[in-house]
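FORM 12-B: Structure-to-Sequence Request
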């Protein structure tokens, strides 16, 4: 890092707060909308009750595509222009959704938000990597992830609070204000961290090479698919949570409290995983967690069947708490395993792994969500079925890595 950058960069606490705000924008944009999905569907005349799930799913599809662009763009144009371009597109998507008069226009706005929010999510990681390394980088990431974990707990409460005094459109107004404030803050306080001489031309061939490297490396491909399947079950939950809790179980305005409780299981597991992974390693933890989710779902299925898809609320919450605890230990581990063999193409490799996993998760979430029939059968089958498929994928992945997969040869990213 240059001396000029050291002098001009924001103080440590402010930098962490700024990065946490930028990376949390995606989670906020998803979770704060959940209490409003029913109202949106009614006001914009969604053709089918399950169509409202697309308000959640399409932001994931946008993020999947956006991740491929912002990494190479930030390497070519610099971190600040790439991140600000993402924020501008996100705010444009917020405006489209805010003033939408039809459900299709609303969905177009959500797709734009996903494409845009991928920018701050991806580029903020590059900013952290540019300015810090080693233990300092780990410290920054720990603080950022702590905030990221809190957001799903409070975001639905924020959305519900806005609905008490205004319509669902005001939630998009809140997104717009937060993004605009973050843009001004970032512009004024964050210096450019990528020197001109270190920039790499943006070419489609770089993205193509990144795909080839992931596809030809069994560990990267297998764990990218696993990451998508694991997240896909969770996207299915996010897509149907409002229907399950507010409509099927009639919780109404209490829904954000139950959502927050379940989110805390994910957050606590993520924090605990930092210790467990040092003791047991990533691969055993992934196998144990997937086996546990499959076992819990198979064991819970007879209860669901006996109750015609509507078990007692306490039983459902207990099941989801256990499943989310094991899901929380999976998210970081499977992504790290996918990235591990891509040591020589870290930047574009991360973009490809992220895009592949989020795209698979969006498709899985849409399938689970569209199957919702007023019961929790699709949700339980989704969690259990995708865990079983993930176990098969990880076995295939490891069967190849044991006999050895070709290492990715070192390559200059500018080639």
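FORM 12-B RESPONSE
SEQUENCE OUT:
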């Amino acid at each position: 890092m240059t001396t000029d950058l050291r002098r001009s960069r924001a103080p440590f606490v402010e930098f962490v707060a700024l990065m946490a705000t930028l990376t949390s924008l995606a989670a906020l944009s998803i979770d704060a909308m959940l209490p409003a999905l029913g109202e949106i569907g009614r006001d914009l005349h969604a053709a089918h009750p399950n169509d409202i799930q697309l308000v959640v799913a399409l932001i994931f599809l946008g993020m999947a595509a956006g991740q491929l662009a912002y990494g190479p763009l930030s390497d070519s144009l610099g971190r600040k222009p790439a991140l600000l371009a993402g924020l501008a597109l996100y705010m444009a998507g917020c405006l489209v959704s805010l003033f939408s008069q039809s459900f299709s226009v609303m969905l177009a706005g959500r797709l734009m938000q996903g494409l845009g929010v991928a920018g701050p999510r991806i580029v903020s990681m590059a900013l952290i990597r540019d300015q810090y390394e080693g233990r300092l980088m780990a410290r920054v990431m720990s603080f950022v992830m702590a905030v990221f974990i809190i957001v799903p707990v409070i975001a639905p409460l924020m959305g519900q609070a806005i609905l008490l005094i205004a319509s669902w459109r005001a939630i998009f107004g809140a997104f717009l204000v937060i993004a605009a404030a973050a843009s001004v803050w970032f512009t004024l306080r964050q210096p450019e961290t990528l020197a001109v001489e270190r920039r790499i031309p943006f070419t489609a061939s770089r993205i193509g090479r990144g795909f080839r490297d992931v596809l030809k490396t069994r560990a990267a491909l297998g764990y990218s698919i696993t990451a998508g399947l694991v997240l896909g079950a969770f996207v299915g939950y996010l897509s149907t949570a409002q229907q399950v809790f507010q409509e099927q179980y009639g919780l109404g305005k209490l829904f954000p409290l139950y959502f927050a409780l379940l989110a805390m299981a994910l957050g606590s597991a993520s924090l605990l995983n930092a210790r467990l992974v040092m003791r047991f390693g990533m691969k055993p933890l992934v196998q144990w967690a997937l086996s546990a989710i499959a076992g819990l779902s198979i064991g819970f299925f007879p209860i669901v069947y006996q109750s015609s898809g509507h078990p007692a609320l306490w039983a459902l919450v207990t099941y989801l708490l256990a499943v989310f605890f094991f899901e929380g230990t999976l998210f970081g581990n499977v992504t790290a395993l996918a990235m591990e063999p891509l040591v020589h193409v870290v930047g574009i490799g991360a973009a490809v792994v992220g895009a592949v996993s989020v795209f698979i998760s969006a498709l899985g979430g849409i399938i689970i969500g569209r199957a919702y029939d007023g019961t929790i059968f699709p949700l339980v089958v989704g969690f259990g079925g995708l865990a079983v498929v993930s176990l098969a994928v990880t076995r295939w992945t490891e069967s190849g890595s044991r006999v050895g997969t070709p290492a990715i040869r070192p390559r200059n990213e500018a080639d």
